[in-house]
Amino acid sequence: MRYGYGVDYSYLILVLPALLFTLWAQFRVKSVFAKYRQVPSDRNMTGADAARLVLAQNGVSGVTVTKIAGELTDHYDPKENVIRLSESVYDARTAAAVGVAAHEAGHAVQYAQEYMPIRLRAAVIPVTKIGTYAAWPLFVLGLAMSVGVLQLAGIILFSACVLFQLLTLPVEINASRRAVKALENAGLSEEGLKAAKSVLTAAALTYVAALASAMANLLRLLSLYSRRKR
Q1: Does a structural domain hold residue 4?
Q2: Which of 19, 89, 154, 197 is an S-S bond match for 97, by CB 3.0 to 4.6 Å?
């Protein structure tokens, strides 16, 4: 991409490395999950069992654990107070299923205990949704029309996306820590805990990559805006 006087090196220097890191992180989490799908869980525990165990260890009640279709579609829905586990996790008696399900239960515990970062993340979601779809179109339109206000609007909206990713990383790490602590307190074996940690560490890399990608794109927007002002 050119902007009057040369190549847009900001993409090559900032965005491309972040994109490659994201692709590697996605590959990593899938390969680790595939590996530990072959490893039996402690106590013949299913993913659903693990989620309920984490909830019980933290004294959290009233959360429903259900099955949904798809692969790695697991999530906690705070509006419905439901942990939804994918078909490859809910009934599976594998180390991978235990790690994933325990992590989602960790999110339920965060909401039950009013963990502030997850509340802050939820608060910025509406602006983030707008920024996801409108930030780049506004910025590009501002570039085409040489309207600085539109460019700034795009940057501000995209900054909300970066803030969301910035809040997401500690939230996800904290949920994994809660999960591991609950599994440890429940007396899982050293091998079982090691497997769960491996799955959760691989998953955490995807959030690190998402933050790196968001920050790289924001720096690119700022670089392009700075150029057009010269």
Answers
A1: no
A2: 89
